[in-house]
Design goal:
The chain has an 18-stranded mixed sheet that branches. β7 and β8 form a beta hairpin. It is built from five helices and 18 strands. Helix content is 16%, strand content 37%. The protein is an alpha+beta fold. It has two domains: 134 residues, Diaminopimelate Epimerase, Chain A, domain 1, CATH 3.10.310; 132 residues, Diaminopimelate Epimerase, Chain A, domain 1 (Roll), CATH 3.10.310. The relative contact order is 0.19. The structure holds 2,6-diaminopimelic acid. 2,6-diaminopimelic acid binds next to α3 and α5.
Length: 307
């Protein structure tokens, strides 16, 4: 088909980069240098691993909306829902804005839907993220409870489970298990993700404590299912483990996709996460009819949740 005809009636090609943090994978889009807007149903199509690009989350780089912040960071799950935090994504975000020459700073301040996080580029593709102070007050998570506790009892699927509830900007439920390999991730994960006590749903972590400095973790993510790694989930799991007296302040967390180092000095302190960010390939695509990367998404307008 001639270049001319091919250009007719089609939106400009959308440039994107495919990245991952320990196998938690992302489509990353610079919405500063190119116009960008995608509806939830198009995000769902693009996240499909057979019919689309395939990713756990879409990460969007936008101009800052606050003073003394370098960028705005928007996160969309594979199901098209817009969410408040993505730890593995934050490391990829830092690597992306440097590689795309959108900044030459070593320490980058980024505005998310729930606050500001600080990203520090290290050596050999490592990035340290100040993930902010965890929130355990139930209404702020949100989690339905009469009072704040370290461990809650939740009825699910005819059984009673114990879990901790923590927000890293996004909501997490954390269960302590004997062995992540035999943990009921596929069954309890989706039931707890959409449990009524998590009115905004939740990411569900299954934490195995090896010793006070090492843990293993699997996470069934809100809006994405089980992923190979979850950065905010690792932070929430260490917070839960520390509050339960099971972990020290510096923990190596082994996820299916690799290892993160998480540090938390206790209540009121931020959670620090250290790990890799990997670029897989750069691509461009003409979006199928209906979606034009031509207008900026309305700020703060959450994507429609899948019914
Ligand atoms: N994979 C991400 C978590 C995405 C969060 C999203 N699943 C939600 O909160 O709905 C991470 O590394 O923190």
């Amino acid at each position: 088909m001639s270049q001319h005809r091919r250009g007719q009636g089609q939106g400009a090609a959308l440039r994107f980069t495919k990245m991952h943090g320990l196998g938690n994978d992302f489509m990353v889009v610079d919405a500063i240098s190119q116009p960008f807007r995608l509806r939830p149903e198009m995000i769902r199509k693009l996240s499909d691993r057979n019919f689309g690009i395939g990713f756990d989350q879409l990460l969007v780089v936008e101009p800052p909306g606050l003073p003394d912040v370098d960028f705005r960071y928007r996160i969309f799950n594979a199901d098209g829902s817009e969410v408040e935090q993505c730890g593995n994504g934050a490391r990829c975000f830092a690597s992306f804005v440097r590689d795309q020459r959108l900044t030459n700073k070593k320490v980058i301040r980024v505005q998310t839907a729930k606050g500001v996080i600080e990203l520090r580029l290290g050596k050999q593709g490592m990035v340290t993220v100040n993930m902010g102070v965890p929130e355990m007050n139930p209404p702020a998570i949100p989690f339905a409870a009469d009072q704040q506790k370290t461990v809650y009892t939740v009825e699910v699927d005819g059984q009673t489970v114990e879990l901790s509830a923590v927000s890293m900007g996004n909501p997490h439920g954390v269960l302590v298990v004997d062995n992540v390999d035999t943990a009921p991730v596929e069954t309890l994960g989706p039931l707890l993700e959409s449990h009524p006590r998590f009115p905004a749903k939740a990411n569900i972590g299954f934490l195995q404590v090896i010793d006070r400095k090492r843990a293993r973790l699997r996470v069934y993510e809100r809006g994405a299912g089980e992923t190979l790694a979850c950065g905010s989930g690792a932070c929430a799991a260490v917070v839960a483990g520390c509050l339960r007296g099971l972990l020290d302040s510096r923990v190596e967390v082994e996820l299916r996709g690799g290892r993160l180092v998480i540090e938390w000095q206790g209540e009121g302190a931020p959670v620090m996460m250290d790990g890799p960010a990997t670029t897989v390939f750069e691509g461009q695509m003409r979006l199928p009819g209906g979606d034009k990367p031509g207008r900026r998404p309305k700020h703060g307008k959450p994507a429609r949740k899948r019914s």
